[in-house]
Amino acid sequence: MTQPVYATREDVMRAMDSKLTARNTGQIDRAVESASRDVETLCHRRFYPEVATRYFDWPNSQTARPWRLWLDDSELISVTSISSGGTTIAPSDCLLEPNRTGPPYNRLELNIGTNATFGGGQTYQRDITVTGVWGYTDADTAAGALAAAVSTTAATSMSVNAAASALLGVGSLLRIDSERMLVTGRTMATTGQTLGGPGLDAQAKTVTVPVPDGTQYAVDEVFLIDSERMLIVDIAGNNLIVRRGWDGSVLAAHTAGATIYAPRALTVTRGALGTTAATHANAAPVYRWEPPGPVRQLVIAEAIASLTSESSGYSKTARSANGSSERNRDQGALEAQRDATYDACGRHARARAV
After folding, report:
1. How does DSSP classify residue 7?
2. How far is CA 320 from CA 20, 156, 306, 325, in A?
3. How far apart are CA 222 and CA 209, in angstroms?
4. Structural domain spans, the chain
5. Is residue 216 helix, strand or coil?
6. pTM exceeding 0.85
7. Quick one: which H or E segment has residue 133?
8. Distance between CA atoms of 16 and 308, rounded to whole angstroms?
9. Higher pLDDT pick, 343 / 308
10. What 3-state class would DSSP assign to 300?
11. How confident is the model at residue 350, as a pLDDT?
12. For residues 346 and 314, which has the higher predicted lDDT (pLDDT)?
């Protein structure tokens, strides 16, 4: 994935109850990225936050009020600095509008109670320079912490704790301190713990996994013992309550003392979206950027539709998993989801007075 996406590989796999295989993950990543770009096209906007400097003509072709700059498709979340004609304007002299519903903000106005003005450059081209965070939303959620320090700015792998392991996936957009990172891969790493006695048999009804310290795990985290993956659905003291044979792995017996692994090693793209790579201390909080709910749901739905269409050769019928039956493919629910997402998050044509 080269650009931020609005759902993770794991979101789609869980929705499809899909097996974890190298071939399948490649298909899913491709479908998620394609669906994310399709949703941007549908809604006429990009949703993720990006730190950047952008330039605007003044006076521009919109002949707006002398204190008003329409941003159009360059939606703004916050301003770091602004200048016009080479003269710096204090961000405190700027008003971001509409203030009642933003961000995102679609126009920037100078406070007419100050002496700030636009213009004054030798030409009108790129007279106004605005540096800030651009996009639809900069909302993020606490998602665990680092399990080890990131000691160099070139490192592309890092270790996270159980909470982060449960909440993050391939495609997640992270923030640690002021740096953003895009998760491009996850691999298993030892938890430092082993299976307690008396071990596990190979029956799906055996769902209690004894461990030395239950506080070192999190609900919704997947872990690996031998070659069987398990999903934690609850934690009772030092017992993990799990679903056995997760991600298409095979039920098996496991002896006490077997090493427990979890996908706590992340591969990331550093300094993403205009931020700067930096070092980070052990236990530094990790935050996950949250796309709008309807956008995330539509990307999951579009990715599933793409994958199921691909498996059926893009025919108008859908085959069952074992190929024994077919049914007409119903696109009504997907169309309704598209309409709902556009209504909630689309950038509509606007009527305005300049």
Report:
1. S
2. 19, 40, 16, 6
3. 13
4. 1-44+292-354, 50-134, 140-289
5. helix
6. yes
7. strand 128-134
8. 10
9. 343
10. helix
11. 57
12. 346
Distance separating alpha carbons of residues 52 and 85, to the nearest angstrom: 19
Q: What is the DSSP string of 38-106?
A: HHHHHHTS--S-EEEEEEE-SS-TT---TTEEE-TTS-EEEEEEEEETTEEE-GGGEEEE-TTTPSSBS
Render pLDDT for 99-126 as a digit per residue (tens, 0 to 9): 999 899 999 999 999 999 999 888 899 9
Tokens of 87: 């003269």
pLDDT tens digits, one per residue of 264-285? 999 999 999 999 999 999 999 9
Gap between the Cα atoms of 199 and 208, Å rounded? 10
Per the listing, tokens 């609850």 go with: 234
Q: Which residue has the tokens 């909302």?
A: 139
Pull the structure tokens for residue 234: 């609850």
Enumerate helices (H) and strands (E) in the chain, giving the number of each. 5, 19
Asked if the peptide bond before residue 98 counts as cis, ω within 30 degrees of 0, the response is: yes
The predicted pLDDT at position 22 comes to 63
Residues 145-172: tens digit of each pLDDT: 999 999 999 999 999 999 999 999 999 9
CA distances (Å), 217 to each of 25, 238, 348, in order? 25, 10, 45
